């Protein structure tokens, strides 16, 4: 197997699972035991917000699934970037397709990114098209999502704390057959880096990490990591399965 030389980052997004803190602790402990030997991989878990403080402080980094677009105030039910950081998270996912579907516009997402960076969080910015067409018009949609964030950064240095996660919405939650081919993912990685280069500069664009997320499992992860030119993966449902998630991390460790 050809080594990539990269230190991949594998992020598990638990979404609104599991139901209880006890279950979260059991899953987290089982994952920790299975992946502790894979030192070449950066492991990150995004649990529901109420579980972050309890799970923080371990060898696996913690990630929030979202933050508010406001720093504080009368925002019942919202969680600020500073609160997330204080709870023990180092990362935050912003712009996930499910949040966009719930009403997060590019403007809202840009505000969230700014507040997250100011709070000292690393941002995983999700971008991706809702559907593909035969004329590559979907690239415009992805470009606009990237431009809305990178074009308003306070300085170029801020970009080093942002990872772009390519998440084709039409593939999320689907089957293996609906997952983009590694060659298609590779092309999107190039495109994303090109757009960032145009906004900031070539050096920054080339250095911007790009993850893939969308119908990932322990069966297709190795191929995507090996041939998709990605720097990491954003894993959904299989991140709740310690055996399957550990297998994905094992694949990344072998390629590193």
Largest sheet: 8 strands, parallel, barrel
**Gross geometry:** globular
What's the rounded overall pLDDT mean? 94
Strand content: 5-15%
What is the class in the CATH system?
A: Alpha Beta
Q: What is the H/E order?
A: EHEHEHEHHEHEHHEHEH
Which stretches are poorly predicted, pLDDT < 50 over at least 5 residues? none
- What is the name of the CATH topology? TIM Barrel
CATH architecture: Alpha-Beta Barrel
The total beta strand count reads 8
**Portion of residues within helices:** 25-40%
Give the C-alpha Rg. 17 Å
Tally of individual domains: 1
**CATH homologous superfamily title:** Aldolase class I
End-to-end CA span: 10 Å
The number of distinct helices, counting runs of at least 4 residues, comes to: 10
Task: Tell me the structural class.
Answer: alpha/beta
The order of strands across the largest sheet is 1-2-3-4-5-6-7-8
């Amino acid at each position: 197997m050809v080594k990539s030389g990269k230190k991949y980052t594998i992020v598990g997004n638990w979404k609104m699972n599991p139901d209880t803190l006890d279950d979260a602790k059991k899953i987290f402990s089982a994952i920790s035991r299975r992946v502790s030997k894979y030192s070449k991989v950066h492991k990150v878990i995004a649990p529901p917000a109420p579980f972050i403080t309890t799970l923080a402080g371990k060898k696996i980094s913690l990630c929030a699934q979202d933050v508010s677009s406001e720093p504080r105030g009368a925002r019942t039910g919202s969680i600020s970037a500073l609160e997330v950081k204080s709870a023990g998270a180092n990362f935050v996912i912003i712009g996930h397709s499910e949040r966009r579907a719930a009403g997060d516009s590019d403007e809202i997402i840009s505000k969230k990114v700014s507040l997250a960076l100011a709070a000292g969080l690393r941002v995983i910015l999700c971008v991706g098209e809702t559907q593909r067409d035969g004329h590559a018009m979907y690239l415009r949609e992805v470009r606009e999502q990237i431009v809305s964030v990178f074009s308003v950064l306070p300085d170029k240095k801020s970009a080093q704390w942002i990872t772009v996660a390519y998440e084709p919405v039409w593939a999320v939650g689907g089957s293996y057959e609906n997952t983009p081919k590694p060659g298609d993912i590779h092309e999107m990685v190039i495109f994303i880096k090109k757009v960032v280069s145009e906004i900031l500069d070539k050096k920054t664009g080339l250095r911007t990490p790009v993850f893939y997320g969308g119908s990932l499992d322990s069966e297709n992860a190795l191929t995507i990591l090996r041939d998709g030119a990605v720097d990491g993966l954003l894993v959904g449902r299989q991140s709740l399965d310690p055996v399957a998630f550990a297998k994905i991390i094992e694949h990344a460790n072998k390629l590193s």
